[in-house]
Amino acid sequence: MEASRLQKEGKTLKETVQWLDKYKTYLRSWFTVDDLKHLIHGGRVSKAQAAIGELLSIKPILNVDKKGQLQNVDKVHGRKKALQRMVKETITGVDLSIVNHFYVAYSGDRKAVDKVIQQLKQYYPKTPITYYPLGPTISSHTGYGCIAVFSMGS
């Protein structure tokens, strides 16, 4: 998204690549899934873990670290708490001087997107938020109800 913005501002390809290289480690991504069965297929959880997790309505809080590795940060009970925790993690350490924008990606659950946007707006009412559907490749690994929030920060 930022590469597109830089191009529209008239930056050269070289300038855009330099900006992306400089700030790539500042990208912060937090996400959760609503259904654990897709994580079984990806090898992220075992069938037993998923069965117990579904029974107890446990939702994982995941992020991608600076090395690009998927990390299971925490587990919370219920969808509402998962969305709240994602927003909390997003606003902790956010640096809007790098990119004054939030991005929310989702697979199917627009009501959850609206809740996340509403929560972000409580903390940053003037910061633009763009939302868009996840592509089919990611959605096939996460299932219906995946929500991801992207920002820049430490």
From TrEMBL:
The keyword Cell membrane does not apply. GO terms for molecular function: lipid binding. Pfam families: DegV. InterPro entries: DegV, DegV_C, DegV_domain_contain. It comes from the Bacteria. Keywords: Lipid-binding. May bind long-chain fatty acids, such as palmitate, and may play a role in lipid transport or fatty acid metabolism. This is DegV family protein. It comes from Tetragenococcus muriaticus PMC-11-5. The lineage of its organism: Bacteria, Bacillati, Bacillota, Bacilli, Lactobacillales.
